[in-house]
Write a structure and sequence with these properties.
32% helix; 8-stranded mixed β-sheet; alpha+beta; 482 residues; 19 strands; globular
Length: 482
């Protein structure tokens, strides 16, 4: 299957549609949220072929969707959103991804860039010391079997109850850092074993901890509600469920591939393996996915504790500690209520490389944020910038309350390594006032700024289409990578 630009209908300047008539398997249209230059770039890989395939999922509602940061993934494109009818529509592990509840959190400080500029290099080194990073790297905590069961059941609550976080943090996390449908018994012993020593670690790939400053405020009122101000120092954390989540995905993709014939399900791509949500296999996967999501929230809470420790070690206890602004997932499936064809229905929303972005009035939000809407945190790359946005009331009509999750890859890791001289890049970033600490030059090359799309263009698309509103732009000054 090949998709040409002539196959795509322009709905408006930022929304495009591949009609249901394009392919006989499609049950709904496939929609792309992108400016025209971004759409042209998206057509260069198989993202839209994957999007069309997603439109054939049993029980899919409305349309299959991709965000402007989309790129090719496993089965589903990364940056994809699909809502299937609850309770018997499909659930597909490929629509969540291998890094279950990969997500981001932002910690805020009372300090301005000018207050700490002379301490940035020692701060970056102390962050690197306190926060374990790198492929397979273990952390300071070795979970017992009992602890593992509690982490999988309770999520971030476990970290708080064991002194690795603050009780107030829980109110500032998506789902308060815990999915109650989690069932640790549905997580394999191999997955638990892989996660035993990795709590409080960021891993490798595109995961990082970054010290940024607020370069620009776009919406003073919402920024004030979020506790953001110009020149403020903030800490951005991006990681997920580590080896545990990867193993959960591996286990259930294998199981679901075998189970599909029992339900008479055929998919155009075996990587889209799925079963009915209310089937035994669907329920087992969902409960295991929730448990892995809880592990990820606990992981980011422990990493925040490590970042807070590094902060105090450099600046002393007399400076106010770092405060959690918000934590949001971007690889997850959740049961939500949305309006489809004029009717409010329950759906299973798959978000893979896409962020929940609910608008004002959402009851789960802390009171201080309810009139502003949910914070949406969009990391860029280590040499460019990141953004804080606020969810819009309009996006439920367009994207099932979803937004982009980052800049989106432009080059594969292999291509980036071939084009980037990592030691030179590290030195150039330092000359620009960005201190990079990493376990290997390979990791720096793979995550070089040229490997990513223009995050400004991606964010401008979601802002102009009223999916989310720009609140603040962040610039990196210190980066810890695996």
């Amino acid at each position: 299957m090949k998709i040409n630009k002539t196959d795509i209908i322009r709905i408006n300047d930022y929304l495009w549609e591949i009609p249901k008539s394009f392919n006989e398997r499609m049950l709904v249209p496939a929609r792309v949220l992108a400016s025209e230059p971004l759409l042209d770039a998206i057509l260069e890989d198989r993202s839209l072929v994957q999007l069309v395939n997603v439109a054939s999922l049993p029980g899919i509602q409305g349309a299959s969707l991709v965000m402007p940061d989309v790129h090719e993934g496993y089965g589903f494109p990364i940056g994809g959103v699909a809502a299937t009818l609850y309770p018997d529509g499909a659930i597909s592990p490929g629509g969540i991804g291998y890094d279950i509840n990969c997500g981001v959190r932002l910690l805020t400080s009372h300090q301005k860039l000018g207050d700490i500029k002379d301490k940035l290099e020692p701060l970056s080194k102390e962050m690197y010391t306190q926060i374990p990073s790198g492929m397979g790297k273990g952390g300071q905590i070795n979970l017992s079997s009992k602890d593992m069961e509690e982490v999988l059941s309770k999520g971030a609550e476990w970290a708080v109850s064991h002194g690795y976080g603050e009780i107030e943090d829980l109110a500032f996390m998506e789902s308060n850092g815990r999915l109650k449908s989690a069932d640790p018994s549905k997580v394999s012993e191999m997955a638990k074993k892989r996660g035993t020593g990795q709590l409080g670690t960021i891993g490798s790939g595109n995961h990082f901890v970054e010290v940024d400053y607020v370069e620009e405020i776009f919406n003073e009122e919402i920024a004030k509600a979020y506790g953001l101000f110009e020149s403020q120092i903030v800490v951005l954390i991006h990681t997920g469920s580590r080896g545990l989540g990867h193993q959960v995905a591996t286990d259930y993709i294998r199981l679901i591939m075998k189970a599909m014939p029992n339900y008479g399900i055929e998919v155009p791509d075996r990587e889209l393996a799925c079963v009915p949500f209310n089937s035994i296999e669907g329920q087992d996967y969902f409960k295991a996915m929730c448990a892995a999501a809880n592990y990820a929230w606990c992981n980011r809470e422990v990493i925040a504790w490590e970042a807070r420790t590094a902060w105090q070690n450099i600046f002393g206890k007399e400076i106010e500690p770092l405060k959690l602004m918000y934590d949001v997932a971007h690889n997850i499936a959740k049961i939500e209520e949305h309006r489809v064809a004029g009717e409010e229905i329950q759906v299973i929303v798959h978000r893979k490389g896409a962020t929940r972005a609910f608008g004002p009035g959402f009851e789960e939000l802390p009171k201080a944020y309810r009139t502003a809407g949910q914070p949406v945190i969009i990391p860029g790359s280590m040499g460019t910038c990141s953004y804080v946005l606020a969810g819009s009331a309009k996006n439920k009509e367009i994207t099932f309350g979803s937004c982009c999750h980052g800049a989106g890859r432009r080059l594969s890791r292999t291509a980036a390594k071939k084009q980037v001289n990592a030691p030179v890049l590290k030195e150039k970033l330092k000359e620009r006032g960005i201190y990079v600490e990493a376990g290997s030059f390979k990791g720096i090359a793979e995550e070089a700024p040229i490997a990513y799309k223009d995050v400004d263009m991606v964010v401008e698309t979601v802002n102009a289409s009223e999916v989310a509103n720009k609140v603040a732009k962040l610039r990196p000054v210190a980066v810890v990578k695996g």
